Amino acid sequence: MLIDTHCHLDFERFDEDRDAIVQRASKAGVTQIIVPALDLDNCRTVLALTDKYEGVFAAVGIHPNSSAEWQDSWIGVLRDLAQHPKVVAIGEIGLDYYWDKSPKAVQQRALGSQLELAAELNLPVIIHNRESNADVIQMLSESPLVGRVNPGVLHSFAADWETAVSALNLGYYLGFTGPVTFKKADDLREIAKKVPNDRILVETDAPFLTPHPFRGKRNEPAYVAYVAERLAEERGVSTAVFAQQTTANAQRLFSVIGEQ
């Protein structure tokens, strides 16, 4: 049993065979899939998927690359959307200094507001961090989620060990994706090996970041098994044991899933 804690199942690249993808995931032992939203319209699309598929859950939020036109009134809309019974987190939110799609100050305003919303609703956050390590950690360390149990996850972790330690010390989980299987990803694997058993998650970020041996092709939830297999090997445990650990972690963090 595995949980893909981050998959963009709503993307157009899945439109022609989405039902088959969900079925393949189930056959591969992937019992639940969390689909994070990127903007307000996308939130509604994602929620519709949760209504269609029993094992699909949602996160609602504004991605940093969708935050250029941020309005404080969006928080009220997100608050309403988060009342859906299959919303398990606020996300995908964070900072992205790689793409120049939104001014840093606006990204930070959007992130800060959504961290406050998550604290208000007692929901974990799914954090996007790209070339913004210091600012992400600073904002998380100053947010109203500080001191909360299971505040969230740094998804598709690709930062350095110092950032990992800072996030772990704040109570966050670290999610790992396909790149941990890549031939030259020794540094990332060294970090993944040191993450505590109760703080590590597996995800695909599909349709992106496809793991070996399918690198270069479209990613899908069933392939989270390859991420789990490689991480289990690196950490010196069986795939079955590691799958059990990461599933328990996902159920603990995203508590609505655990109630199913």
Task: Give an account of the 3D structure.
The mean pLDDT is 96. α5 links the parallel β5 (125-130) and β6. The chain is built from 10 helices and 8 strands. An 8-stranded parallel β-sheet has the order 1-2-3-4-5-6-7-8. The chain has one domain: Alpha-Beta Barrel (TIM Barrel), CATH 3.20.20. The protein starts with a strand and ends with a helix. The chain is an alpha/beta fold and 260 residues long. α2 (40-52) packs parallel to α3 (74-81) and α8 crosses α9. Helices cover 41% and strands 16% of the residues.
Chain-wise SSE layout:
Elements: E1 2-4, H1 18-27, E2 30-36, H2 40-52, E3 56-60, H3 74-81, E4 87-96, H4 104-121, E5 125-130, H5 133-141, E6 152-154, H6 161-169, E7 173-176, H7 186-194, E8 200-202, H8 224-235, H9 239-253, H10 255-258
Parallel strand pairs: 1-2, 2-3, 3-4, 4-5, 5-6, 6-7, 7-8
CATH superfamily descriptor: Metal-dependent hydrolases
Shape field:
globular
| Gap from first CA to last CA | 14 Å
Roughly how many Å is the radius of gyration?
17 Å
- Determine and state the CATH class: Alpha Beta
User: What helical percentage do the residues reach?
Assistant: 40-55%
How many domains, as an integer? Answer: 1
For the sheet with most strands, the description reads:
8 strands, parallel
Second CATH tier, the architecture: Alpha-Beta Barrel
CATH T-level topology: TIM Barrel
Q: Average pLDDT value?
A: 96
